[in-house]
Design goal:
Bound molecules: magnesium ion
Shape: globular
Largest sheet: 9 strands, mixed
Order of helices and strands: EEEHHHHHEHEHEHEHEHEHHEEE
Strand content: 15-25%
Number of domains: 2
Structural class: alpha/beta
CATH architecture of the largest domain: Alpha-Beta Barrel
Radius of gyration: 21 Å
CATH topology of the largest domain: TIM Barrel
Distance between the termini: 81 Å
Number of strands: 12
Length: about 400
């Protein structure tokens, strides 16, 4: 008897012909300061894959520390794994590279490296299919609300008031400010100013950047409750899952966590412990779009929304690819466009962000025009005095 066979036409393989990595280090275009950190620079790691003679770019980032290590990990241990690989098999590639790298530990350097690779592979696939990234990843929403976000703890209540009014006039309905000043009264003065500027109905969210212990977090959250806060972000150290669960039982303000988690398993631990309301996994820090989608689905299974941290160009596509996307973070001065690395800004119309409709992620990198921000491949020299926090 003739066996029925299934043949698979493999003539459309997307074989990687060349792989290269670039690193850029650029100062933020506006000052950035939160409760635990002054950001000296954003480092953008760009992975360039050539398929069918055409370049495709993936990227990852750091907030000023670790970029050369990420580049070295990719350059010395990953480029050789990419050439000859069929870029259609993105999820398989992630697993393969995960096993290749994970004995250096999963988190920070390793996942940031994986992210640049994963995004580049998704980009190859999306370009080949002719679809924008959010459709290639699944396709759910045509737009997503955006929030205006500032790394703004250095701003006075008066400055904050004026800034939020400007942003509201632009059409935003979600606003995030930093908290975590030494005196609770000073935090409240800033929250009150922001609330007054945006009115009673707009969403106001707060970010503490891990600045409190549990007792202080409980005291501050209770003091902030009258201001109708839509979430408090990173009130405690990210390792303290139990602390978040306890805090959640003691305040009515929803807890947002995730920008400092590096694996889907860490997010799962938060969900299982009932310690988080809004999952903020960062596409670069968790290792790319592939694990980010896994995390978003995990959150969906637990009936929690996602609101990814930073990286606005990619987060916009990711949010429009899933059905539990809440809101997009648009950090003032933080987009690849603001940093001078991407030609186009994302489109935000009356507070709603619209993903690009061209094939792929739609980010056109200005590599040739950014030579002065390029970090040399060797003999890296520290030369930015703004990196010092006195
Ligand atoms: Mg944050």
């Amino acid at each position: 008897m003739m066996e029925e066979t299934t043949t698979f036409a493999d003539d459309r393989a997307l074989l990687v012909e060349r792989a290269a990595v670039h690193l850029f280090r650029m100062p933020p275009s506006v000052p950035w300061e939160d409760a635990t950190h002054r950001v000296p620079a954003i480092e953008v790691i760009v992975l360039e894959l050539t398929v069918n003679g055409r370049p495709a770019y993936g990227f990852s980032y750091t907030v000023g520390v670790g970029g050369t290590a990420v580049r070295a990990l990719i350059q010395d241990y990953c480029l050789s794994q990419l050439v000859g690989r069929d870029a259609r098999y993105v999820i398989g590639a992630w697993k393969s590279l995960y096993y290749h790298l994970h004995r250096t530990g999963m988190g920070a350097i390793t996942t940031l490296a994986l992210a640049a690779i994963d995004v580049a592979l998704w980009e190859v696939r999306a370009q080949a299919s002719g679809r924008p990234l959010h459709l290639e990843m699944g396709g759910s929403a045509r737009s997503i609300p955006a929030y205006t976000s500032g790394i703004d703890l250095h701003l006075s209540p008066e400055e904050l008031f004026g800034l939020q009014q400007v942003k509201q006039a632009e059409g935003y309905e979600w606003f995030k400010i930093k908290v975590g000043l030494p005196r609770q009264a000073d935090d409240i003065a800033r929250i009150a100013a922001a609330r007054e500027a945006i009115g009673p109905d707009a969403h106001l969210v707060l970010d503490a950047n891990q600045s409190w212990d549990l007792g202080e977090a409980v005291r501050r959250c209770r003091a902030f409750e009258p201001f109708n806060v839509s979430w408090i972000e990173e009130p405690l150290a990210p390792e303290d899952i139990g602390g978040h669960a306890t805090l959640r039982s003691k305040t009515g303000i929803p807890l947002a966590v995730g920008e400092s988690l590096y694996t889907a398993q860490s997010v799962r631990d938060y969900l299982v412990a009932d310690a988080v309301d809004i999952v903020q996994a960062d596409i670069a820090r968790v290792g790319g779009l592939t694990p980010w989608l896994r995390i978003a689905n995990l959150a969906a299974a637990c009936n929690r929304p996602v609101a990814p941290h930073f990286l606005v160009e990619l987060s916009l596509h990711a949010l429009c690819a899933v059905d539990n996307g809440l809101v997009l973070e648009n950090v003032r001065g933080g987009s690849l466009h603001d940093l001078g690395l991407a030609r186009e800004a994302i489109r935000v119309v009356r507070g709603a962000a619209l993903p690009s409709t061209i094939a792929g992620h739609g980010v056109t990198l200005e590599i040739a025009g950014n030579q002065r921000h390029r970090v040399p491949a060797s003999d890296y020299v520290f030369d930015d005095i703004r990196s010092h926090k006195e």
